[in-house]
């Protein structure tokens, strides 16, 4: 199954989960709030990759009420729910695949929570290159996501993805923190750091584009 087919599988999975999504992800609100708290004080223009129903944007708009946010999400049902939030008129919503959509440019920050742990390392290289390119100089990439605790754990999930994906509606393939940082370094990010959050199997990884 190629990347496009896998992403369509993800689209179907999340469209079907719309009624339970917020209830499940409410337990990640403290993790999501950290994204807003790590943004630079002069942030005004933000790209959110995989925003779902917009839970992480609640705190973003509390701290940055005048922010302009572009959201890209593959699930039209998620974006339909996001469109009913109080801040929806400040959000440009794009339904599509991260690897096919033009991100735009000149963002102060790119943020993401619980969305990028579905890709192989070689796919993340391509994605992180797009993120780096769309940021302005000194721009910030904040990714709060699931991680693997060991190389063995990562290898197991990758093996399932390669060989048994038809047996699942949804496969998580988180990388280790070390591998995440290595990819960010490889594509050219600077000042990369990893931060613990309230979920033991999650980390917030912060990286900056060179000024």
Could you walk me through the main structural features you see in this protein, from its secondary elements to its overall organization?
The chain is an alpha/beta fold and 211 residues long. Strands 3-2-1-4-5-7-6 form a 7-stranded mixed β-sheet, sandwiched between helices. It has one domain (3-208): Vaccinia Virus protein VP39 (Rossmann fold, 3-Layer(aba) Sandwich), CATH 3.40.50. The chain has helices at 3-16, 18-25, 29-38, 55-63, 76-82, 121-134, 151-163, 177-187, and strands at residues 45-49, 68-73, 91-95, 107-113, 135-146, 190-196, 202-208. 41% of the residues lie in helices and 23% in strands. 36% of the residues are buried.
Number of helices: 8
Binned, the helix content reads: 40-55%
Fourth-tier CATH superfamily name:
Vaccinia Virus protein VP39
For the biggest β-sheet, the strand order reads 3-2-1-4-5-7-6
Strand content: 15-25%
Average pLDDT taken over every residue: 93
